[in-house]
Amino acid sequence: MSGKWSDLPGDLLSKIANGLGLIDFLSFRCVCKDWNTASLKVSPYDKSVLCDPWFLMYGREGSKCSLLSHQNKCYSINLPEIDGATCLASYQGWLLLFGQGSLFFFSPFSRAKIDLPNCPLTDACDHVAAFSAAPTSEECIVVVLNCTIPTELQLFKLCKGKDEWAKSSFSGHEFRKIETALFYEKKEFHFLDGDNGLITFNASKKSKQWNMYTLSVSTGKSPSSTRLRYTTRKNIFQLKNEQREKGLLEANDSISTCGTIVPHSSGLCDMIIRSESIEAKTQPQSRHLKGVWIQPRYFPVPSTQTW
Description:
- The protein is mainly beta.
- Helix content is 11%, strand content 38%.
- The chain is built from 5 helices and 21 strands.
- A 6-stranded mixed β-sheet has the order 3-2-1-21-17-20.
- The longest helix is centred in the N-terminal third of the chain and has 9 residues, at 10-18.
């Protein structure tokens, strides 16, 4: 057979790209200009088959990151876009990060980045966040919850296409530390503490936006006897993967992780992976790492895409 691989017809290259797994697909795009062009014809959702989420670990040495697949295969990847940043939310393959005084969306697999305007934060400590849809969707709503004050929760909300953040607060209670945030349904966001506490915020209402519940562990129901359409899992990173034994963590490393939503194939009951904070096993602590669970999805977004 004569000729060059780069001379293959574009339609054939697109068919080849469409049949590749995510990592091989990313390598395919880097071969040459023609192969990269052919990959652009592949639908982003062709790479979004429902599966267990992958885990991205960052904060080691500059832009060097570790990516652990759902099959426990480990890859190295350079992501200078998230160097020094902190992930506040992960949903549908997109990350919401805070870094250098700004909030932005980032897709690690396509390197697409969308900046949000007029960031209301000065740091990421004691903050959780969630968003309702991909940032390319007109239905996207972003909420960031400030949990710094034990007796007051401060929430910032930004709707797609808007420049200014709306602010709301909830007080009058002694709140436990909020660990996980998620979008539920019908513009309602849920905030879970480390125990059985649930706080809800309805972004569509002008008044009575907030509610507070204690979940029943035995039934998974709220006091109104409404069964939630999700289950939660704690300590997934710590218990499932034994990362220290795999060499991804040293004994004197600590790590904080950001959870995500794992959609159920039938759409009936999603699984929420909670965020975690894992201390170093030995002292003194040498470094603090960060990690995030993410759905392995590829989103080609034009460089001109804005909020």
